[in-house]
Amino acid sequence: MADSSIPCLSYNDFGTFLKERIGQRRFPFTGSIEITPHCNLKCVHCYVSHCKQEANILSYAEVCRLLDEVANEGCLWILFTGGEPLVRPDFMDIYTYAKKKGIFVSLFTNGTLITPAIADYLYQWKPRAVEITLYGATKQTYERITGVAGSYERCLQGIELLAERRIPLRLKTMVLTINKGEIKQMQDYAQKLGIPFRYDPSIMPRLDKGLEPCQFRLTPEEIVEIELADPERIKDWREFCQRKLGAIDTDTLFVCNAGIHSFAIDSYGRLSLCISARSQTYDLRQGSFAEAWRDFLPKVRDQKAAADAKCSGCELVSMCGRCAAWAELETGDPQSEVEWLCRLAHLRLSSFGISVPAQIK
Questions:
Q1: Which residues contact 324 (CB under 8 A, 6 or more apart)?
Q2: Do 285 and 195 fall into the same domain?
Q3: Are residues 186 and 45 located together in one domain of the fold?
Q4: Do 157 and 232 belong together in one domain?
Q5: Pairing state between β 282-283 and 270-272
Q6: Are 71 and 139 members of one domain?
Q7: CA 125 distance to own-chain centroid
Q8: CA–CA gap between residue 332 and residue 324 (Å, rounded)
Q9: For the segment 234-290, what is each residue's pLDDT rounded down to a tens digit?
Q10: Which residue range forms the structural domain that includes residue 19?
């Protein structure tokens, strides 16, 4: 008798399978919804919390309608983020609605509001992944960043509640001047729990273009010093450069896949290319997701970069992480250079033993 079993693919393999077949055809198979701008912490580097917040965030009914609409267009993955999603009293209802739609759900949270009851529910209705941000390895450092007494213990409790139930969990941190000396300790803590860990030194300005978070950003030299002490990090960067180094063959302002395979919706129902590119948005309270995906986002994506823009044709664009949204937040001009990113990219290449093409030295 022939084997009639259905092969099982991991989430990552399934995602790769889809991307290979879709290629550069526009298809919204992944998106994020910021279900609240509010948070129970007061992190010094937050890009949302100090911005002007409106009162009329999306209601439960509106979120469900949007989930219906994105699912009808083929969306398979949704990230719920904020703010802190769990401050919404109806968060678990929203989560359950998305799960019952057959959507793969990921959750970004600070972990401090996770209770045994929530952990039990997530065990029953498993998410695609939960990512918790750990701001420090010690109480002093963690709470110096979050500004809330008792938040360190609550975060560790949340992490351990999920880890005990083997819920798909990842830990991450933003590398700041305040916690830069505790990266290794946080890595060791995650390893002890058997949980993946990553760190990111890319501190952006606030969404209102306030530069206050940047005062906590490390210098490129400090970042490379940390990375040189991490063999796996160096290995990943070298492999990335072998695959990606080189000019991107496009004359468009945006060079990533935002608006091609992904989208972002903020707490007020405004659609944009990504969570950072919010200068051009579409009000989903006034129109449908299908209309926005078909008519609005392509116009944003198709904006051309100036022929004489400094970063046009640069072979380090994929390495530096420069994007039009970041440039606009930091300098007011989406076509400008972000000097900090440029310096970091060049320093990484020279420090990791990768030759820099002569034309971009």
A1: 253, 254, 277, 334, 335
A2: yes
A3: yes
A4: no
A5: antiparallel
A6: yes
A7: 23
A8: 10
A9: 888 888 887 777 777 778 888 888 899 999 999 999 999 999 999 999 999 999 999
A10: 11-218+257-303
- The DSSP bridge partners found for residue 105 are 78
CA distance 158 to 119: 8
Tell me how far apart the alpha carbons of residues 21 and 346 are, in angstroms, rounded to a whole number: 34
Contact 337, 217 (CB under 8 A): no
**186 and 65 assigned to the same domain:** yes
Tokens, residue 331: 């300098």
Does the pTM surpass 0.85? The reply is: yes
Query: How is residue 125 written in tokens?
Result: 């209705």
What CA–CA distance (Å, rounded) separates 87 from 37? 10
CA distance linking residue 108 with residue 111, whole number of Å? 9
Beta strands in the chain (DSSP E): 30-34, 77-81, 104-109, 129-133, 169-174, 197-200, 262-265, 270-272, 282-283
- H helix intervals, 73-164: 91-100, 116-124, 139-146, 151-164
